[in-house]
Write a structure and sequence with these properties.
Blueprint lengths: L9 H17 L6 E6 L5 E5 L4 E6 L4 H16 L11 H19 L8
Parallel strand pairs: 1-3
Antiparallel strand pairs: 2-3
Helix pairs in contact: 1-3, 2-3
Bound molecules: zinc ion (ZN).
The site of zinc ion has 3 residues, from helix 2.
């Protein structure tokens, strides 16, 4: 079965952008990052070239899964520029824990009108 794009609600789209804004502020990366939502067979991936990180998140995912994928891929980028980004090693999971904690804080600070 081919994955079909899922539409987010207006509130969910706003929250997605708020997460991105605060992740950039509180969990900065060592280079600029471009985050795209697009048709993927996986939930997401991350990559880099000489200047930037690139995070892709599958648009077939629902809102909750997109947020979780964003945290996961952000942690990969946090690992750094020179190390192998694809490893799910202890350093990755430590970084994922930090990103996840930041996401929980961002979620708790969401404007009231964006609560579900
Ligand atoms: Zn991964």
């Amino acid at each position: 079965m081919k994955a079909r794009p899922k539409r987010l609600t207006h509130k969910q789209r706003r929250k997605w952008h708020i997460y991105l804004y605060w992740l950039r502020e509180r969990m900065p990366l060592s280079a600029p990052v471009i985050v795209r939502t697009c048709l993927l067979s996986d939930s997401g991936d991350s990559n880099r070239d000489s200047a930037r990180f690139y995070i892709r998140v599958g648009n077939h995912l629902d809102y909750r899964a997109r947020i979780e994928t964003l945290a996961h891929e952000w942690a990969h980028c946090r690992i750094g520029w020179d190390t192998v980004m694809l490893d799910h090693n202890a350093a990755f999971w430590a970084e994922f824990g930090a990103v996840d904690a930041a996401m929980v804080t961002i979620s708790a600070e969401m404007p009231e009108e964006l609560e579900d």
